[in-house]
Every structure is written in structure tokens, then in C-alpha cells.
Amino acid sequence: MELREISTWTAIVTPFFEDGSVDVASLERLVVEQSAAGNGLVVLGSTGEALACDEDEKFEILKAIMWMDREVPVVVGVGGFQLETQRAWIRKGNALGVDGFMLVTPLYAKPGAAGQLAWFEALMNEAEAPCMLYNIPGRAATTLHIDVVKELGTHRQAWAIKEAGGSLESFQAYREAAGDHWVLYSGDDPLLPTFAPEGAVGVVSVAANVWPELTHQFTQWVCNATVEELSSNEAQTMIQHWGTLTESLFVTSNPVPTKVLLATQGRLSSATTRPPLSIKEKALETLDVEALEQLATGLANSLPR
Question: Which of 58, 162, 185, 259 is catalytic?
């Protein structure tokens, strides 16, 4: 399947048993659900707690997913700030035949444009599949430089930008820099309705873990609706409900609320996260699972078929 045909990519969680070991059976159930909904998989990103897994664990998780029965592509996260470690990780992804790589802006080091260009070019040269660059200043402590987007647009593996800068102005700047070389995805579920009229082709979604079909349907609708259609009272109500649902997943650090909801729904054996994340955060007391499910059902029924 052509990657640009996918509008909804699920940044899939990594299920753990209570002892912290990987729960492959729960992971397989989630993959089956996402495949049935037509959602592509983004594996071992921040939602997948990749930095809490060692290299051997990551390889076993990725290998398990690649061997699962599915009909949707797999994109694997590439993070950190040790170049040779990330190049080696890309080679493992190449060997397993992954469909794409999501390259995160280098963490913590805060490189400038020249450093970022050298970093991304080295990784893209290693990759045998298309690459998505990920702007996430809230985690990386720096933005993806506009010059990097312009310079690498003609690279053979240039594919997409995942924009999670948190503002319309940021999205518009990347949209202009991308030209015809890159497609843009919203990296924030709540901001998808804001970014879609500005050219977002879809979303890399946390919400799709909890609501696979609804997220797919909502994304298809909002990315294909006209500005006039989105401005109607009915559309604005649906967008407001989407905002309420998706913002609930960020009452504390992602993916903690998502895992709690999935476990409550019986779709994970445990909501366990790895340190430093915790399912004992007080903010989780605000999650009203029953109310959220009612809202999700109502939104699904309201969306055009």
C-alpha cells in the first residue's frame, strides 16, 4: 500500500504485563484492530515508550509486529541522539522490511540547522524505505529547522513531516517549506481540525489506539470536507466533541491515559507503563471512561457515511 494513501497512522502503545515484560498477545490484538480499521502503524515512538526499551527489546517488538497478520504498513520510530546507534537501528528495520521510518528531531542536544541536516541526511541515506521527519519541540527541546525541510525535500526517501509544534503558524511554515516534496500530517489529535484545511493529509494519532474506527472516520471526514462544510454548526459540534475526547488523553503524560483507557476497556491485560511514567498520577482521576465512550459513540453516529 502506498504510504501517501494512508490518512490515519496509529502511534501504537507497547503493552506490558504488570512485571514490566512485553505483552505480545495484547499487542497482536491491537494490531488486528488497527488493520481492520485501515490505520497504518507507527511503532516504537514516544507513545510506544521506545526510550524505555533496550535495543534487543525494540527489535523483538518490531519483529513480532512485522510477522503479525495485518494489511497495513508499518513505520518505525528512530529517536535518541547517538547517530551510529540510530543508523544500526535503521539497518535492522531495513532487514525486517519495514515500510517507513519516523525520524525524530535529535533529543536534548538541541542542534542547529547544520547539525540537523547532517543528522537527518545520514539517517535517510541509511534507510531503504521512505522517511517521515518529526517536529516535536516539546520533547526534543528544539524545532525541526525549516532549512532542513527545504534541503532534504529532493532526497530519494523524502516522504512526510509529522508536525507537533502546537500552533497553526508552525504548521503553515512547514507547509510552505515542504512544497510538493513532503506531505504533512498533524502530530496532535486535537489540532487535526485546525491543520486539515491548511493542507494536512491526515494524522499520526494517539487517539486511534482507543478509538480506531472513529479516528479513521473522523480523519477522512475532516481532511476531505470544505471550509464551508467545517464551519456549519453541526460540524463545529463534532469538532468540539473530538477535542473533548482527544484532550482527555493528555491529562498527564502520553501514553499513560491511553493505556488506562485501553485496560479499562479490557483491550490490554494491564495499564502498566515503564518508569519514569506512572499510572498512579493524580490527574488520571479526572478520566470519566463511561462519559468518554458515550461521547465517542455519539460522534461516530454523527459523522457522514
Answer: 162
